[in-house]
Specification:
With 413 residues, the protein is of the alpha/beta class. The protein has 15 helices and 14 strands.
Length: 413
């Protein structure tokens, strides 16, 4: 079975092609046959396209024009043309899976995409304006390029559908609940994959584990996972809530927003821009939304380094520790702490700073293992009461897995 996965962002479109045997789904992720990425770095008028294959073939191309669908068409045509060819024709693709950031209350499991599903994705765009419209554009492009192919939506909010009401419902008027205003949580595909992979690494049943998964990238969220189910998470009604992030603020006192609107003449549009694109590491440090650049700006000492970069680091660590503590309380204990995504996988300093606060649990980090860029590895000491894992999150593979399961369970239309 050949499965194409599309993962749409606000200014990018990532894609990969997997070939998976029909008989049984592999226990570990396979390498994709082909990977493609489109970056609209400046505007929709210029697309930077990068393609690579499992055999080492590569392609880089800049394409002018203001049609994202034309850009996607060009990228997908590299699947069966020239040096990056991995299939003879596009009709060999059996199914296309899409990551959809927001599925609302109605879409908790992956579904075959119909006109009703497309309408729901569009209607939820006001809750995920950076992502749902881009995903919908990808769905419509595939309809034109691969006519008649089955498409499946996999929702980032789906894994958190098991949140108990006490964790999901905000303490505002009950009318909010009736309006669908509640905690949905995000990064669910990543959190679910990492919980399953953690159980594999530890040789345990995921249903018996108490896990905290830390998805730390440009967007950041934590999940408390018990018996394989999400019972708490830091992101909420939108992806702005929770931890300090690259350019998002995370949780702030809502009274601040009222103050800015009432007394400082801020518009809703300006607040939205500030909370999503001018806050977090970027807003505090004044340097970058990238943790690596913030670390460089810190230099070696407070005297020599950028004091705002130091402050950004301190706030980030404080918020991360506080969030882990909250998840710990929801779980009533902890078997393993998992770090994933760009910062979680590649910053030993963040992992060490986070773990140092939980020595009282008997958590002991192996500092040497932590420094050596571990991948899918336990980096706690042998006598640690809590395991500490670094896991390379594989959202695309998880989406491919849900597509495979849907087709094998006769969901094909």
């Amino acid at each position: 079975m050949k499965i194409l996965v599309l993962n749409a962002g606000s200014s990018s479109q990532k894609s990969c092609l997997y070939e998976i045997a029909d008989e049984a789904f592999p226990t570990q992720a396979l390498q994709p046959l082909w990977e493609g990425k489109i970056n609209w770095t400046q505007d929709r008028g210029v697309a930077e396209i990068e393609v690579k294959t499992a055999t080492g073939a590569t392609l880089q191309k800049s394409i002018a024009g203001d049609s994202p669908q034309a850009h996607l068409t060009y990228m997908l045509n590299t699947l069966n043309h020239d040096a990056t060819k991995v299939i003879n024709q596009l009709s060999e693709i059996d199914v296309v899976g899409h990551r959809i950031v927001h599925g609302g209350e109605d879409y908790r499991d992956s579904v075959v995409i119909t006109e009703d599903v497309k309408k729901a994705i569009a209607d939820l765009s006001n809750l995920a304006p950076e992502h749902n419209p881009a995903a919908l554009s990808g769905i419509e492009a595939v309809e034109n390029i691969l006519k008649g192919v089955t498409q499946i939506a996999v929702f980032d909010t789906g894994f958190h559908a098991t949140l108990p009401d006490a964790a999901a419902i905000y303490p505002g008027p009950y009318q909010w609940v009736e309006q669908g205003i509640r905690r949905y949580g995000f990064h669910g595909i990543s959190h679910q994959y990492c919980s399953q992979r953690a159980a594999q690494i530890l040789g345990r049943n995921v249903a018996s584990e108490r896990l905290i998964t830390c998805h730390l990238g440009n967007g950041c969220s934590l999940a408390a996972i018990k018996n394989g189910r999400s019972i708490d998470t830091t992101m909420g009604f939108t992806p702005v809530e929770g931890l300090m992030m690259g350019s998002r603020s995370g949780s702030v006192d809502p009274g601040i927003l009222i103050y800015l609107l009432r007394y400082c003449n801020y518009s809703v549009e300006r607040l939205d821009e500030i909370l999503n694109k001018a806050s977090g590491l970027k807003g505090i440090s004044g340097v970058s939304s990238d943790m690596r650049e913030v670390r460089e700006a810190m230099s070696t000492t407070y005297a020599q380094g950028n004091s705002r970069a130091h402050l950004a680091w301190d706030i980030y660590v404080h918020r991360l520790r506080s969030g882990i503590g909250a998840m710990l309380a929801s779980l009533g204990g902890l078997d393993a702490l998992v770090f994933t995504a760009g910062v979680g996988e590649h910053s030993p300093q963040i992992r060490q700073a986070a773990c140092e606060a939980f020595g009282f649990l008997g958590l002991k980090l192996d500092l040497e293992k932590n420094e050596h860029q571990p991948v899918d590895e336990d980096i706690a000491t042998p006598d640690s009461a809590v395991r500490v894992l670094v896991i390379h999150t594989q959202e695309d593979w998880a989406i491919a897995g849900q597509c495979w399961q849907r087709l094998k369970c006769n969901y094909k239309v």
